[in-house]
Design a protein that fits this description.
The chain is an alpha/beta fold and 1498 residues long. A hairpin with a 2-residue loop joins strand 21 and strand 22 (825-835).
């Protein structure tokens, strides 16, 4: 009863695990698995399971506390919770037999009974016996858990009989079964429950298991549990079943077959493994360690479950595999990165295809190692392979391990690199070839879409090779180039027409009339029309230019950093600083030169030979010349030296001159190139101010007899080069000399150098005294145009190279000061160098004594700007015109330069200005004396200029200025007949040649105003005309003036009568050149002596002739007439000289016919009507409208157009003559048209290179009435429609030309050949079909009907247009009609599949119209109608049913252009080189380009 009241304790059971035991002889090499079964049950965790347990022990281990001299082991206890929730404790005892490791016999223990007897014992006792864990525990008990077996006797409650069903190790199963049977007999005596555990079922032998089951079935209440301790299958089940048998209150044990239990267990393991692997995969760093990761995951349930099931060792192996995968993945990524980087490394180190194309891989590796950039791309590791070194962890080191190149992958990359270079080279070549093709197609205009051009290049080889993207990229690049070029040319054109823009005040804005005038003038220019498709850009450029004209600054200059103002400031800041620092050294006494440095330039050792010859004639490097001893320092340099300039000029060696020696054409060419290079680099780097002035001397070396025949040629060529370079030439003296160089040659060369040195140092001029910078005697403005093709250094060198040059006062960054002796005194001249756009403000607001106007003879825009600027300059101010070019030879060799230089000289002659030229290749242009005469002229007129300036300032200040002024002598200058002996003044040369071979910049035999004698440095070819002056025109005798003293104030009525008479149309107008029977004086106004008009005096009206047509205009004179016969005979200059201080000056444009006519021509062009009938009408009203009063030009000279070799469209002539010329031109064009119509039909060249009796034959010869369609056409169409109607790009994508030719050749041989049997593509057949029509003698659509088709296409009403086209088609020859209908029907079928083949009727017409119509692209009429003809073919394809099968008209988008044709289609630009395009697309001859096309065709 008391037990019931106490807390019930869980029941406790003791189970004895028994089985075959004994020596190796009894049980074999291994046991039956008792220990493993106990281990797995008691300690089920994988880490606590030990698969190896030995029964062979030493005596010490046998006597230890674990074994305790017993033949049984205490495995401990396990607490189990049953299905009914009741816990029980199970003590596990293993009965075994321990073997002595010495005797291999069972150890002797307290119980000497045999194993069968001992195993059946139900009571066990062992004092202080410890729980057994594993074999390693023996002898090291203190290192393991120590748990004692319960004290006292332990009652055994049941037995677990183990039978090994695996293939035993050296053991017979029957013997085991016999042992078990005997053991069972002993156990059954104890009346205790028994369960058989079939162990090692994972290695089960089936019949062994069946025998065990048969053994159990023979015994009553004996269960068999199939177990596997290794996989922990049914281990717990067998113990639980035994407990259930021992506890009658529990249910009947449920035994699960091994396979089912194994599957359940494995499923549990697999699930746990998956969860654990997912945990492990969260680790992404392959450097992670198991210790770190296990500590982080030890509390995770998935981790614990896997550890319990599979153990730490497996978990660690799984982790290690994952880490290895991470590492290999990292290595793979690095390898891929390296492989992907290899092409870039190869491009860096092996980019030259010619160098590596034929190299093997090993040779390429050696070549790479020698490259200087090798270390930047590759790293050579000490240890290999690279993926087993720490280099894989160096993520920041992107260099490729060199040992990686030993792999096949790297070699393959190299081969691909070579192939890529080859293909890229080919691609680049094809792109450039296609680019050149585009450049040859001159009708491509800026802004033209690619689609309009594509049809003309479809057959081009390069176009077919490159991709669509490449072709578009090349075309875009071509467009950018031509657009940029067109914009530059447009901008240049605007500068050439500067007169249009610079006739208003700076602060003015262009009016609508002004803009209309600008557009009217510019629209005639091809460069204006070139931007027709880019009209917004053109308008933007125009407005930008106008904005700059009205608001010019350095920042807004259209030339950017090439603005003349910026360049001048930079040069002056640099050069004037050098001048100030070096001035004291420059004026040392150089007259007594005792050491001469000579630089000797030659080729093939010639320089050294000359140096040796000079040294031979010297004594210790001292040379006697003209009674004086000079020390010579010679520096010979051969042509092969790459440091020409550095050898020439060093701090230790500054040459006084250069000897250039030659003995062949090659050496002479080398000398010319070297001198040009030296001068160019000298002007750029400006090492020394005299470096660019270094005197050169050309010396011809003597030759042997065998080569002496070339001497005349060398002599001539050397003289020509010397003339071009403006340097002396020393010939081989007459006679025979054994040596190459003669003493006379050397002495002559040294004398020339000494003279040049003396001149360059300017020893006569003393050091200038420093005056107050503000005290400038003369103010000169030099103007140059921004962007002109010459260096600022060139035009400023006459000043900067002068020793009298100094900086202007602070703040004047664009000015310099000169101290020059002019007249008898030293004068201080301020030179201000400005761009033309900056000079305009100075021209209007500041006092200027003279202008030096510079222009480039290579650039029309430069002359245009000069004309615009000069037109508004007051004629009292002296002007010096300066033309700049490379050499005098340009005048004779380049017509454009000749025209511009001649025009500049003409202007200078007309306005009595000075003219000179500067040559960039000449070494004598850097002389201030070039402008000495101009300075003298300015000084002479200084007082008059200042009085005029003060007078203008006073008038502006008091607002009393009138628009009436007196005229200077030049203002009333008479018109001279420059060519009295010439019958045709249009062909007459200028009065003197400014560029003759014998012309020098400095006149001979005269001294300058400072007392210096002009040196002569060149060898003139013609010396008899030495008096000619380059800069100042010779005096010209004025044309005699026939005075009319009886002209008085005209009666108003008489004046009206005169005006009415003049207003009548004349049949015979005066021509430009006055005839012999015409009084020359009639064309000139009468000079009148004038003074300022006093108040109250009435205006006198006089009639004077206006321009060459002798029309009379009225001039209101604000002065009284005091004209006597004597005054008229003597002229008026004397009278006028008395009133210089009072007169108001005119402008140069009223003195120069060139300037005036060019300015007025724009007004005439802008206000003239387009109609020939209305143009230049002679009605009185229109005449008055044309003349805006001549208040500014009362004494305007009659217009005589100067031609003089200048071909400038702005120069106008007599309008009636122009009208006649235009009519003649129109008649000529009409005759040309008629002539063209009579010419034979255009036949393109055939594409075939073989003789054929079929292809190229007339169409009529290829058909019959039974077969109206040529057999070849029929075969091709059938093949295409049967096999390739849906082929993308049909008729657009070209087939293989070889296949096309083979198709035609095979058909030539056998007309019955089947195209299906030939291995050809649809595109090849389509190309052969197009080639058939291209080879016909006449196009399928006759030329005679082309105009009718064009006219019909212009009909606006669609229905009417289609019926008209239908009627035209009926006019076809019957054969042509049938074939045309057949082809159009086929194309209609093709277009119906446009969803798949992408060939709409429009696309087909683009591809087929040139083939069907065979346009002659040399004929301008065809070019103007190309788009129309293509649209006609499109209409035929779309309306095929209507045209040929009486069908209805389809509703389609009307694509035929209805715009009227160009108003003047015959006005074409210059023809271009024809572009040859291969068939089948036949516009082979793309010839000229049209003007702006209103149809948008081109």
């Amino acid at each position: 009863m008391m037990a019931k009241n106490k807390e019930p304790r869980p029941p406790s059971y003791a189970i004895s695990v028994i089985g075959l035991s004994g020596t190796e002889k009894d049980k074999g090499n291994c046991g039956v698995g008792k220990s493993c079964l106990c281990n797995r049950f008691v300690r089920s965790k994988a880490d606590e399971y030990y698969p190896e347990h030995t029964s062979v022990l030493s005596t010490i281990d046998f006597g230890g506390r674990v074994v305790n001299n017993d033949h049984f082991l205490y495995w401990g206890d396990v607490t189990q919770c049953g299905e009914d929730g009741i816990d029980c404790k199970i003590h596990v005892i293993e009965q075994t037999e321990f073997i002595d490791d010495q005797t291999f016999l069972p150890h002797r223990s307290t119980n000497l009974q045999p194993y069968i007897k001992r195993a059946a014992a139900t009571k066990l006792q062992s004092a202080e016996k410890l729980m057994y864990i594993c074999t390693d525990q023996l002898g090291l008990e203190q290192d393991f858990e120590q748990k004692q077996m319960p004290e006292g006797k332990l009652n055994i409650d049941g037995f677990l009989l183990c039978i090994d069903v695996s293939q035993g190790c050296n053991r017979k199963f029957d013997d085991q079964l016999k042992f078990v049977n005997n053991l069972y007999v002993q156990l059954s005596k104890s009346k205790k429950p028994i369960i058989i555990a079939a162990t090692k079922c994972d290695e089960c032998v089936e019949h062994y298991l069946r025998e065990v089951q048969a053994f159990a079935s023979n015994k009553k209440n004996l269960l068999v549990v199939e177990t596997s301790a290794r996989f922990n299958v049914n281990v717990e089940t067998c113990f639980t079943a035994l407990v259930q048998m021992m506890d009658k209150t529990r249910g009947k044990p449920k035994i699960i077959p091994y396979l089912d239990a194994y599957k359940t267990q494995r499923q549990l393991v697999v699930t746990s493994t998956d969860k654990f692997e997912k945990l492990v995969q969260t680790v992404r760093d392959y450097h992670a360690t198991w210790k770190t990761v296990s500590n982080k995951l030890k509390n995770h349930p998935d981790y614990e479950e896997y550890i319990n099931l599979e153990g730490t060792k497996k978990a660690k192996n799984t982790f290690s595999k994952h880490i290895e995968q991470l590492k290999q993945e990292h290595i793979r990524k690095r390898r891929d990165e390296y492989i992907n980087t290899l092409p870039r490394a190869f491009n860096t180190l092996l980019s030259n295809l010619e160098e590596i194309e034929h190299l093997s891989w090993s040779e390429a590796l050696k070549l790479m190692e020698k490259r200087p950039d090798f270390q930047l791309c590759f790293v050579v590791l000490e240890k290999t392979p690279w993926d087993e070194t720490d280099h894989i962890d160096k993520v920041n080191d992107r260099r490729i391990p060199f040992d990686l190149l030993s792999t096949l992958e790297a070699e393959k990359v190299y081969q691909n690199h070579v192939q890529h270079l080859i293909s890229e080279k080919r691609r680049v070549e094809m792109k450039e070839k296609f680019k050149k093709t585009l450049e040859k197609i001159q009708f491509i205009s800026p802004g033209q879409p690619w689609e309009e051009v594509m049809c003309f290049v479809m057959e081009d080889e390069a176009f077919k090779y490159i991709t669509e993207a490449d072709s578009r990229e090349v075309y875009s690049r071509h467009q950018r180039e031509i657009v940029e070029k067109a914009k530059e040319e447009f901008q240049e054109m605007l500068f050439e027409h500067s007169e249009l823009f610079y006739d208003l005040d700076l602060n003015a804005t262009p009016s609508s009339d002004k803009m209309s005038e600008i557009h009217a003038v510019l629209s005639e220019e091809p460069r204006y029309k070139a931007l027709q498709k880019l009209a917004p850009d053109r308008e933007s450029l125009l407005l930008k230019h106008i904005g700059f004209v009205y608001h010019p600054t350095k920042e807004t200059c259209l030339s950017g950093q090439n603005c003349m103002d910026i360049k001048v400031e930079q040069l002056l800041a640099r050069s004037l600083l050098q001048l100030d620092h070096g001035r004291l050294n420059l004026y040392h006494d150089s007259a007594n030169i005792d050491k001469v440095n000579i630089f000797i330039l030659g080729k093939d050792g010639l320089a050294q030979e000359l140096a040796n010859e000079i040294r031979t004639q010297s004594t210790d490097d001292e040379y006697a010349l003209d009674g004086k001893i000079y020390e010579l320092d010679l520096r010979p340099v051969d042509a092969k030296s790459p440091y020409l300039l550095s050898h020439l000029w060093t701090s230790a060696f500054k040459p006084h001159g250069c000897f250039c020696v030659f003995n062949s054409i090659e050496s002479l060419t080398f000398i010319g190139e070297s001198i040009t290079k030296i001068r160019t680099e000298a002007s750029q780097i400006r090492r020394d101010k005299y470096m660019a002035s270094l005197p050169f001397t050309l010396i011809l070396a003597n030759q042997r007899d065998s080569a002496s025949k070339h001497l005349p040629i060398l002599r001539h060529q050397g003289q020509q080069l010397a003339n071009k370079l403006q340097c002396p030439f020393i010939d081989v003296p007459a006679g025979t000399y054994p040596r190459k160089f003669n003493e006379a040659q050397i002495k002559q060369a040294l004398r020339g150098v000494l003279e040049a040195v003396k001149h360059n140092f300017d020893v006569v001029s003393p050091v200038p005294t420093i005056k107050d910078l503000s005290e400038a005697d003369l103010r000169i403005v030099m103007c140059a145009m921004c962007g002109d093709p010459f260096s600022v250094d060139l035009i400023l060198s006459p000043f900067l190279d002068s020793h009298s040059c100094s900086a202007a006062q602070a703040g004047q960054n664009n000015s310099l000061m000169l101290d020059k002796i002019i007249g008898e005194k030293r004068r201080r001249i301020q030179i201000t160098i400005l761009s033309y756009h900056s000079s305009i403000g100075v021209r209007k607001d500041e006092l200027v004594h003279g202008y030096i106007l510079v222009y480039s003879a290579k650039r029309k825009a430069s002359m245009g700007m000069l004309r615009a600027f000069l037109s508004e300059v007051q004629d009292t101010i002296p002007v010096q015109l300066v033309a700049v070019t490379d050499s005098q030879a340009d005048f004779f060799e380049i017509e454009a330069i000749k025209e511009l230089m001649t025009e500049g000289e003409h202007i200078a002659t007309e306005i009595t200005a000075k003219f000179t030229a500067l040559y960039s290749l000449s070494q004598y242009h850097r002389q201030t004396e070039v402008f000495t005469l101009f300075f003298s002229d300015v000084l002479e007129k200084k007082n008059m200029i200042e009085n005029s300036y003060m007078s203008d300032s006073t008038r502006e200040a008091t607002h009393t200025s009138e628009d009436v002024f007196l005229h200077s002598p030049r203002g009333g200058a008479l018109t001279y007949n420059y060519y009295p002996d010439s019958e045709d003044d249009t062909e007459a040369p200028p009065p003197y040649s400014p560029m003759g071979d014998d012309v020098q910049l400095i006149p001979k035999d005269r001294f300058d105003l400072e007392g210096n004698e002009y040196p002569v440095h060149s060898t003139p070819l013609n010396c008899h005309d030495h008096e000619r002056n380059h800069k100042v025109p010779p005096p010209i005798k004025p044309k005699p003036v026939a005075l009319k003293p009886n002209v008085k104030k005209l009666d108003p009525n008489l004046l009206k009568t005169i005006e009415a008479g003049i207003g009548k149309p004349r049949k015979n107008r005066t021509t430009l050149a006055p005839s012999d029977d015409l009084d020359q004086s009639d064309n000139y106004a009468e000079p009148i002596d004038t003074i300022f008009k006093h108040r109250g005096v009435t205006d006198d009206i006089y009639a004077i002739p206006d321009d060459s047509q002798n029309r009379m205009i009225k001039i209101r004179n604000s002065f009284t007439i005091n004209n006597t016969q004597g005054d008229e005979e003597n002229g008026f200059p004397d009278r006028m000289s008395k009133t210089h201080g009072e007169r108001r000056p005119s402008k140069y444009k009223y003195k120069s016919k060139t300037l005036f006519i060019k300015a007025k021509s724009y007004y005439r062009r802008a206000h003239s009507d387009a109609s020939d009938d209305e143009a230049f009408t002679t009605s009185k009203t229109k005449r008055k409208g044309r003349h805006r009063g001549s208040e500014e030009d009362p004494l305007l000279s009659p217009v005589e157009t100067w031609k003089g070799g200048i071909d400038n469209p702005a120069i106008t002539s007599d309008q009636e003559l122009d009208d006649k010329k235009m009519k003649k031109k129109t008649q000529k064009v009409k005759e040309d048209k008629k002539q063209k119509k009579k010419t034979k039909t255009f036949n393109p060249p055939t594409r075939r290179n073989w003789e054929s009796n079929y292809f190229g034959m007339p169409l009529q010869d290829l058909v019959t009435s039974e077969k109206p369609i040529p057999l070849f056409v029929e075969k091709c169409v059938d093949f295409i429609e049967d096999t390739g109607l849906c082929t993308e790009g049909l008729y657009r994508v070209s087939g293989n030309k070889t296949d096309q030719d083979n198709i035609q050749k095979q058909f030539d041989q056998d007309h019955n050949i089947s195209l299906e049997s030939m291995d050809v593509t649809v595109n090849a057949v389509a190309g052969a079909l197009k080639a058939f029509f291209a080879d016909l003698p006449d196009p399928l659509i006759p030329y005679s009907l082309h105009p009718e088709l064009v006219e019909a296409s212009k009909i606006l009403d669609k229905t009417e247009r289609l019926y008209e086209l239908k009627e035209i088609v009926k006019k076809f020859h019957p054969v042509n009609y049938d074939v045309f209908r057949y082809v159009i029907t086929h194309l209609n079928r093709v277009s119906q599949q446009s969803r798949t083949n992408l060939m709409t009727a429009d696309n087909l017409s683009i591809c087929f119209w040139p083939t069907l119509m065979r346009p002659d692209f040399e004929n301008r009429e065809f070019l103007s109608t190309t788009k129309i003809l293509q649209s006609v073919i499109e209409t035929f394809i779309q309306q095929c049913q209507f045209f040929f099968y009486n069908g209805e008209i389809l509703e389609t988008s009307d694509s035929v252009a209805h715009q009227p044709p160009p108003s003047n289609p015959v006005q074409m630009v210059d023809p271009i080189i024809p572009l040859q395009l291969p068939p089948p697309l036949q516009p082979q001859l793309i010839q000229p380009q049209l003007q702006a096309d209103p149809l948008g065709i081109i």
